[in-house]
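Look over this entry.
=====
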Amino acid sequence: MKNLIYTLVISALMIAGAAQEASAQKKCDAGWKEKMMSEKIAFLTMELDITPEEALKFWPVYNKIGKDLDEARHNVMDTYKDLAKAVEEGKSPKELSSLIDAYVEAKIRQDELDNASAEAYKSVIPVEKVAKLYVAEEKFRRQYIHKLHHKPEGKK
């Protein structure tokens, strides 16, 4: 029980650091994102049964990877929007080719980060917990989507 409390305290401190960074990015969406991240970190901590020692190593790596992946996802979306706009405007094949290359490069970068994250996680927590991490992240994502789609009538 002491380990659980200690782990939750460490996780809360890590959340605070991530939350400050998130709120600096965009004030308008920081409220829901901060709340969701707090829920996610608590969920992952429980699902992984992470020890205090593991938490000290894991959360900084997890937060860095999350930040890098967020940037990569935003880059993919930005290049996608540029490509879609160019298609809609009937841009030249040369311009389209350049935008396609940028989009594909952004997707490759995102995939490279996804691949590198597994090795980074394995360097700080046991492989069994890395496997649990991937399962828990997907489980959380699905639960959160379900929660968003099934809000009480007055809260939509």
Notes: The longest helix spans residues 52-89.
